[in-house]
Automatic annotation (TrEMBL):
SUPFAM superfamilies: (Trans)glycosidases, beta-N-acetylhexosaminidase-like domain. The keyword Glycoprotein does not apply. One of its GO terms (cellular component) is membrane. GO terms for biological process: carbohydrate metabolic process; glycosaminoglycan metabolic process. InterPro entries: Beta_hexosaminidase_sua/sub, GH, Glyco_hydro_20_cat, Hex-like_dom2, HEX_bac_N. It comes from Amycolatopsis echigonensis. Its EC number is 3.2.1.52. GO terms for molecular function: beta-N-acetylhexosaminidase activity. This is beta-N-acetylhexosaminidase.
Amino acid sequence: VLGLAAVGAPGPATASPAAGERQVTDLVPVPVHAVAKADTFRLTPLTVIRAGRGAGDVAAYLRGLLRPATGFPLPVVPASPGLSAISLDLGHADPRVGDEGYQLDVTKNDVRLRANTAAGLFEGVQSLRQLLPSAIEAKTVQHRTWTISGGSVLDYPRFAHRGAMLDVARHFFTPAQVKKYIDQIVQYKVNTLHLHLSDDQGWRIEIKSWPRLATEGGKTAAYGDPGGYYTQEQYRDIVAYAASRHLTVVPEIDMPGHTNAAQSVYAELNCDGEAVPPRTDIEVGYSSLCINSPTTYRFVEDVIRELAAITPGKYLGIGGDEAHSTSAADYKTFYEKVSPMVAKYGKLITGWHEIAKTPLPTSAVPQYWDQGGPNADVAAAAARGNKFVMSPANHAYLDMKYTESTKLGQDWAGLVEVRDAYEWDPATLVPGVGEKSVAGVEAPLWTETIRTSDDIEYMAFPRLPGIAEIGWSPKSARAWDGYRQRIAKQAPRWEAQGIDFYRSPQVDWR
Ligand code: TNX
């Protein structure tokens, strides 16, 4: 039942946003162009969401965001003459917004969101959402006024790839936990979720032709904690959920190292034909598939075929990191055989940047994880035309401790405070890898020490929004001083959403 009391008293025709509320210039990621206006749209029980052709799904998503806290009906309608409306239109946007950008205009009378694609509308909805009071994130009806700060935004991403990686191998996270993280990260226009599905400590995806990978190899996790795995059906459901939020899942099977879980359940994956004991410690670099055995390639091809069949996204991750127990010659031999399998099943290659040492098609997108500086193999691949996803460990690794006293995480790449995670640029890290060679950025969360959703949130917030901004916003539009003000204004939203974030002393949270 909608009491008119929820609307509150009508305010002045033009009002500047109440203290603490956000204007278009406060958005995270900061937009390409944003002009705030002293005009306020008021959401009421009579407001409708007008969805143009093709905008219905995003309109329904927006309605789902706004209804719990407002309690308003917010019907999605095809046309709305004379009504208070938020309208979502496809195809009438400035061409500069491209495939993922949007234009947003908020006036006293209406809210107009335009884009060329549903993905663009979705990103625009994330901006619109941030212009409402933080209480909009509450799960129950809040009796208060709902204003949207006025202004105009024209916005589009710097890079096509804005990713987060979740390591579900060291510790397992349920589909519900993965979906929760998806909802948290898409707020900051992250459009890719890389799932690290296998490692020494556990195998997390059902492979029907090698069933014990999941049923046995999935039982373990780091430090002897309980494991788990996704059935193919559960994985498809995660992928579909992600797609409904314009997020692409990139599955990764790590190889030829990080394979102890598989080698502990299938003896034939070992050169001596003997299964290795399962391991739950967090050492890296000790395992290797048997490079000269045909069984290895039958196994890898089966895995790639099954994974490709359940993955609508273009990319498959084929690992490649820290193969310290595979000789350089074997490493090259391995990828000469494995890389073509990805194309055979209709996918493109991604993997850790060490794969740049091997012959790769220029469509492959390696992920750089080192700490910047010269790297001849990476530069040579960039010169050949490969693009890179940039995840410098000393800036983008969400498993690095913030300070010495952070209880979770590791520190091999140093301490990564909020400012360290924010102040870097992906196009100036590695000589030879400039703007044109950067596909985007990704914030990996390795989970040796991460066990719960609270742990994920504490390490990701507030660093992940900063990395998302690096991927989205023009370099010229962002700087630490402005960012620390803007990120402070996100905190009440995280509180309303129940996100357990790190209150860095570098930010005045108020
Ligand atoms: C390095 S960097 C790894 C992972 C670990 C991580 C811990 C990279 C590609 N591999 O195996 O989980 O460090 O920070």
